[in-house]
Design brief:
Blueprint lengths: L7 H15 L5 E4 L4 E4 L12 H24 L5 H23 L6 E6 L7 E13 L14 E4 L7 E9 L9 E6 L4 E8 L6 E6 L9 E3 L5 E5 L4 E2 L4 E2 L11 E5 L5 E8 L10 E2 L11 E16 L3 E10 L7
Parallel strand pairs: 16-17
Antiparallel strand pairs: 1-18, 2-18, 3-17, 4-15, 4-17, 5-14, 6-11, 6-15, 7-8, 7-14, 8-9, 9-10, 11-12, 12-13, 17-18
Helix pairs in contact: 1-2, 1-3, 2-3
């Protein structure tokens, strides 16, 4: 089958630029089946008759799946997993169709990368998000300030953690009662403390615990009175400031906040299983963005993606599970 339609090269170039923007995280692939292909006289290694261009198109499609899954899951709140899949599938189908057509235009090769929402390899996690600025203390049913020390994910139901970012108002950070996040797997832990730097516009981050302890705090610059901190991977100031992240602890983990009243801003985190979440974190609704209390929404944790390549000599199919957030624990 030949994909040689007018305009596909140009559209493919445009979409390829988008691919570079989407590939912002490290790709982790978990093969579920061996690559299956039927070819005349094919031996070990890559399937005979499949061009490097086609295989490259497959790799780009997989990276796009991860990037689009993050954008979809964090771009809105959803009532159920069907809504997540319905938002993702058309965007992914359009991207891969245009890119795959452009990649093999003018050849006798057909490439198609698809997402299967019903396959066992597709798994959904839970995103906890506080969209409106407020203190990071324990949410209450009445949406009033609660205790400053609380478990986001309880010890009794540890789970995989794949994301934790926050945007803090620097003027509300404390130099002494530092906002602290603790990730623990019951054996090892990391504590990240975030506070002001002596009344300046800078922010200091220190790590303690038996994994990834730092000898001295790291000073990070803020912008316009705010700072975005990736607590999971350990970076701030657009990556110019790095430190030990919560990912230093192998999952599954519990997640605890201390001195939540010493930080004001917004935050979001993603866990693999929501059964251990603080019970007062309610499911997100249409009204959730108007409150300063966190809510929960389903999101992707892992995607089942299939790539099929056909030429006049070969039919090649590869199925992989794409981990959206990397390993992230169990």
């Amino acid at each position: 089958m030949v994909n040689d339609r007018p305009g596909t090269n140009r559209r493919g170039q445009i979409m390829l630029v988008g691919a570079l923007a989407l590939a912002v995280l490290l790709l982790a692939l978990v093969p579920v089946y061996n690559a299956v292909f039927m070819a005349e006289g094919a031996g070990a290694g890559e399937p005979e008759g499949v061009s490097d261009t086609a295989l490259s198109a497959e790799a780009v499609g997989i990276r796009a799946a991860q990037g689009l899954a993050v954008r979809t899951g964090h771009g809105s709140v959803y009532a159920d997993t069907d809504e997540v899949a319905a938002a993702f599938d058309p965007a992914f189908e359009n991207y891969t169709r245009l890119h795959d057509e452009a990649a093999v235009a003018g050849s006798d090769t057909y490439v198609r990368t698809t997402f299967d929402a019903d396959a066992p390899g597709t798994e959904y996690g839970v995103r906890v998000v506080q969209n409106r600025s407020g203190y990071l203390d324990k949410p209450t049913v009445a949406h009033t300030p609660g205790p400053k020390n609380w478990f986001v994910v309880r010890n009794s139901n540890r789970t995989g953690l794949g994301w934790f970012t926050a945007r803090f108002d620097v003027s509300n950070l404390s130099e002494t009662d530092r906002f602290t996040v603790v990730a623990s797997n019951g054996t090892h832990s990391v504590e990240l403390g975030v506070g002001s730097d002596g009344g300046s516009t800078d922010v200091t981050v220190n790590a303690s615990g038996d994994v990834g302890e730092m000898d001295e705090p790291v000073t990070c610059s803020s912008r316009a009175g705010e700072i975005v901190v990736d607590l999971y991977r350990g970076s701030a100031d657009r990556g110019d400031c790095t430190f030990t992240g919560l990912d230093a602890v192998e999952g599954p983990v519990s997640v605890r906040i201390r001195n939540g009243s010493s930080a004001y801003g917004v935050y979001e985190l993603v866990v693999r299983n929501g059964t251990g979440l603080q019970p007062t974190i309610e499911a997100c609704t249409a009204a959730s963005p108007s409150t300063s209390s966190p809510c929960s929404s389903p999101t992707f944790w892992q995607l089942a993606v299939t790539t099929r390549v056909e030429t006049d000599r070969t039919a090649y199919e590869n199925r992989v599970n794409v981990s959206v957030y990397g390993a992230g624990g169990d």
